[in-house]
Amino acid sequence: MAAEIIRRGGLVVFPTETVYGLGADACNPIAVARIFEVKRRPAIDPLIIHVADAESARTYGEIPDKWAPALMRKFWPGPLTLVVRKRSTVPSIVTAGLDTVAIRVPAHPVAQSLIRASGTAIAAPSANPFGYVSPTMAEHIHGELFDQIDLLLDGGACGVGLESTIVSLIGPSPLILRAGGITGEEIAQVLETGSLPISAKSHALPQAPGQLARHYATRTPLEIVPDDDRGAFLCAGDKVGLLTLKSPSRPERFASVEVLSETGNLREAAANLFAALRRLDALGLDRIIASPIPEKGLGIAIMDRLHRCAARHA
User: Fold this and answer.
1) Quick check: is 279 in a domain?
2) Which residues, 6+ apart, have CB-to-CB distance to 52 below 8 Å?
3) Can you give the CATH number for the domain in which 256 is found?
């Protein structure tokens, strides 16, 4: 049923290991236009196309002989997106008019089954209103886009919980366009290079998804505040929520506390991030305070999301 909906130009929300995606036939520009309409996504923001395997990727992009084979062998299927020159099979609406396309092979078995049964690449951003916190559970879709889609596939909670890492293979050397579920250190190790550069944090005209300055944002104002400075941000009578890596010393000062990982495990913290933000956002708080996460490994991607969330309210 889901594959038939895709083939006839409908929209299916499906799980991946990163977040839930709002999917349409990537080769059907009218179906893809519905994604932009339903999400209220600006047309300048390109989409990722999801394919079943590395061989299928060659139908939609010009895969370079350098770098790409090693990355595909190691990280596909998985949370890595590669930006390469696009082929004519990809409509320009998918790529926001760019001559490049972002491609990945998801690892989630439901996503894999849907792509293979549909017989086409599936264009899919996160299944949420544009700019809001990405969904990592099926219940996050209800009340947001549910009445505008044709089918929701429930695959449980997403294991990674952060969007894919996006790496451009267009220039003279690989460039990380968006930090995500695979760390720069892991990529550099496979390529046997030094640390990979990360593109500027925001772009007026994005080269890939997730590059706009304001994104992944709660409706409740969020501020990133070092632990030692929390007292100055707590005002009498304010309902303030706390998002923190580990349990705070004085939780009673907050209306609600979300701990991302009691052990400080960054992989666990990444998987819990968006669901925790959504829970805090649903409480009618005056503000959310987020404690900084160590910017190493997956902490870079977590802080990227928090900075973009905070920028919406700055």
Assistant:
1) yes
2) 105, 112, 115, 116
3) 3.40.50.11030
